[in-house]
Amino acid sequence: MIKKCFFIIAIFSAIAAVSLIRIQPASASSIWIISPNGGEYLSVSSTYQIKWISSSDVAYTGIFLMKEGGGSIQIATGVYNYGISGGEVYDWYIPSNIASGRYKINITGEIASDGSQIVSAFDESDNFFTISNPTTACGPYSDLVVTGSTSGGSIWGSNPYTDDSDFNKAALHAGLISAGQTATIRKTNAGYLYNFTGSTFNGVTTLPWTTGWCGVNISFVSFVATPYLTLNSPNGGENWTIGETKRVSWGIANINYVRIYIEDASGAITGSGSVNYIYDGAIPISTSYFDWTIQKSQLPGSNLTFPRNYKIRIDGVNSTETGAQVVATDRSDNSFTIREAVTPSLSVAYPNGGETLIKGQTYTFRWTSQNMSGKNVRVALYQKDLTPPLFENIAGITSADSGWVSWAIPSSIVSKSNYYKIAVIYDSSTGGVAGESVADYSDNFFSILDTETPVAGCLPDGSLVKLPEDPKVYIIINCQKKWIQTTQEFNQGGYSWSSVQETIPSALQSYTDYVQLLKATSDEKVYKIIGGKKLWIPTSESFANQGFNWSQVQEATKANIDKYARAKLVRVASSPNVYYLTEAGRKRHILNSEVFLSYGNKWEDVVEITAADLEMYPDSVLIRAEGDKKVFVLIEGKKQWIKTAEAFNQLALDWNNIAPVNTTELNAYPEGAAIE
User: Yeast cell wall synthesis Kre9/Knh1-like N-terminal domain: from which residue to which, for each copy (predicted)?
Assistant: First the structure.
């Protein structure tokens, strides 16, 4: 019984096994990398065993080196898998041309030994490992350090440096030094100073030790204080003047002396130890500034023009000897400006000689000033033939920059011709320093009289005249004065400024204004030229009422007439009201600035005319909105709708006098009763 049961169980187990084999699917191809799998440190020109496990259906493998950041190198292909229980092995001799860096291994399954057929199986190192190559530039390799002692040494290692107090160990940041170079390293609170040539320290790294380092030879390790030097002033943007005393200041630590230089834009320098210098010597650290009286002879270059831009450079040294080693340096972040000192001056502008001033009238005396900012002056009347000359202050103390004072000439002044000058004076009485003064006088004498005496007769045609305090220049034509309105017009006329003579107001007023009347040869319309624009004289009655003579009318071509813009915005000088002149020769008062601006008008286009000119034009009283047929008549400032053509005709109105207006103007008129 027992044997039979065993036999039955055995048969059942065999059947079950067969059944399991039939329903089990084929296993997927697979590869597992054992090493390097991350964190290892490898070196070039050495052999390393790459290990992996693969499933039995992977006959061959391809091995690739994958660089961090991209790029791959084929190590081998067609590597036969022996099915070793402990894993497959490939002895990889790491070539010397592999650059230092972080890498992973990639192993890919192959069916054919030539790598032409790939199976769906591969694996890659879980993390990066490191390859170091002392012959290539150092890279940021985690935990790579070099150890050494005060007696020197050179050791490549893989132990992370974690003890900052242990100055028998040191490291340099990758790329600052190549393997095989000798470096002197000094630990400071700012990091680690290093140099390659002896005792001069020419660099510093502040990265933590665990960031990544390369191996170097260590010749000396010790603690020292860090030299510190920074220029505070001038640091850019300042404006200094030759002759002024200005402070050069700095911050300093662990340095014995400072030398001061000045550089121009070309890099040329002067300063301590040179022929021209800011300070001839080295300033001890007990002083953190130097008060420099700026001398032109100290500035680099020759034939200098000003203003010029400069920078200050300071060097830290530990010895007063010429050529002492510089341990730290700093310069102005940006350029500052040095200017030449300019002498303050005053210049009388009016009255400057030849003028006639009338007692009882008020005049504005003018002058110009340079480099007098913040200074005050007084204006005095100078009289000749007095010993000493009499200076009578005619105005209180005022700012030199103001450039003017007003003076009403009192009746007590003695009337004399070509007897007076004015003086503008800066001295101790106006707040200046005793013994320091600036003054200017009228170039020639002027007159002060009781009344004006008009000039008899007319000046010759072409004479140029002006009033003393008015920039307007006039030319005399047929006993009329014509204003030359612009400098361009003056120059185009071929006039000379030296030919302009000053006159008195009553003499100028004795000349009527020059009127230019033009008409086209083929047109009866006569235009009056005002302010560079043409004003149509609409009727012969208006022409006669203005007192014009037909002999005054000049004929011109239509092209010349068309050069003048139509005067369509006008006002009388004594009134603020502005009128629009229609092309039909009628005037309409523009109610307000909103209406004025709604047409795109400009205030400078308004032409001043006489009251007689304005009276030439009848009122424009018929209006309609643009695009609308409704016609309104303006009566006593209100718009009234004329509802029918019959009503329009009954009022004896002219359809040709209807003027289109925009909605802004139409709405500006209050509504009146409609007319039917």
Answer: 351-430
